[in-house]
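Dock iron/sulfur cluster; give full complex structure.
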Amino acid sequence: MVEWLKLVDKARSRSIWMLMYCTGCGAMELPPAMTSRFDMERFGIMPMATPRQADVILVTGYVTKKTLKRIIYAYEQMPAPKWVVSHGSCPINGGVYWDSHATVNRLDLFLPVDLYVAGCMPRAEANMKMFTELMDMIAKGEARGWEEYVKNRDYYKENQRKLFGYDLVFTDGRSAL
Ligand code: SF4
């Protein structure tokens, strides 16, 4: 049974559909990953337009409060297993926008981040390293953020509620509380 699950994880790691949620300027370094020089498709990684078909949500820059709400909506629509990558300094610690009234400094207070890619902006080489690291983590069963999100739902919902008040309603009609 355990061997069978390892095989499933390995298969998943070689077929990643990625929702590139391009919130900030860091997205500029992603196109090279899709073109012939780096060619992320050779790893089985494809860009995906809709959350319901995506395995990974890649948040590529600063996160405003308005954007965060949409990111949470998108994440909640993704089927498990699913993963979150925090790309660039801004969603990790606020980056150059750390004292802005409009941005959120830490994405991981609101969603379970599986992998962080530091830099402003992370270069194409760092993006390729991110892809291979994520594949390894998935293959080894080490990226389990979606389970943490379910286990610690109260924690994440409380942080979301503090930011948005009672205004946050999920796609299934439930409110944040
Ligand atoms: S980390 Fe740098 S490149 Fe990325 S969104 Fe922030 S300012 Fe832009």
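Observed: Residues 24-26, 61-62, 88-90, 95-96, 120-121 surround iron/sulfur cluster (CB under 6 Å).
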